[in-house]
Amino acid sequence: MEPEPIQPRSLGSKILRRFVAGIFILSMLYIFGGYQYFQFQKTPDDVATGEYTQQINADKQSIPVTVYVLTEASEDRNTDRPKRLISNTNQILHQIAVELSPITVSEITLSDVSLSGPELVADPDRLQSILPSISSREVYVVITPSLGGLNGIAFSSKDTVAVAEYTTSYDFRVLAHEIGHLLDLSHVSDKSNLMFSGSGGTDVTQTQAEKAHQEAVNFLSES
């Protein structure tokens, strides 16, 4: 008895198999870190920050800031980007009558900058070996390519925040959020609020503004 000939697969069956294979590949990319490529991006230079209203009747407090950009010797960096980051952040901080000014930008060359951010998250004392000796009271901002899956982190006891270049939210929103932590603001449950964790919200309530502004006054009085 002769075997029946093998029938070719239908077009629908081929499409279904390719669809399943595609889902599997995307799942593997996500599991093994490819998700960072899709979710973590650099903030475009031309993004508009919007307009914000000062929430309290108070004189603006100017906190000096030094930005340390962690880099490798071979990198060709945009030197205007850190200042644009601070300028955009100040638009959000206008709500609490606080600005980061004046600005000093300094580059720190490392042999393997890709490891620096995750090391900071794992061991905050690593700051002491990366940054120059800190001699004055001001805010220190560390910009690094990655923070091991975090957008930013605040080291409140060291007056320092770190912000990743590749983030899931605009980098200036991330920096404003971390500055909020330095000014004693905690996380909230309102997704439209600046202090909601993992969101793109930028709003600040009057109560938050009053608290953060007073903390800025105290910070400057101790400088």
State the gist of this model:
By secondary structure, the protein is an alpha/beta fold. It has 2 domains: 10-39; 61-221, Collagenase (Catalytic Domain), CATH 3.40.390.
Structure description:
The radius of gyration is 23 Å and the shape is globular. The protein has a five-stranded mixed sheet. A hairpin with a 4-residue loop joins β4 and β5. α2 crosses α5. The chain has 223 residues and is an alpha/beta fold. The N and C termini lie far apart (96 Å). It folds into two domains: 30 residues; 161 residues, Collagenase (Catalytic Domain) (3-Layer(aba) Sandwich).
Topology:
Elements: H1 11-39, E1 61-71, H2 81-93, E2 98-109, H3 113-122, H4 127-130, E3 139-144, E4 152-155, E5 160-164, H5 171-182, H6 206-221
Parallel strand pairs: 1-2, 1-3, 3-5
Antiparallel strand pairs: 4-5
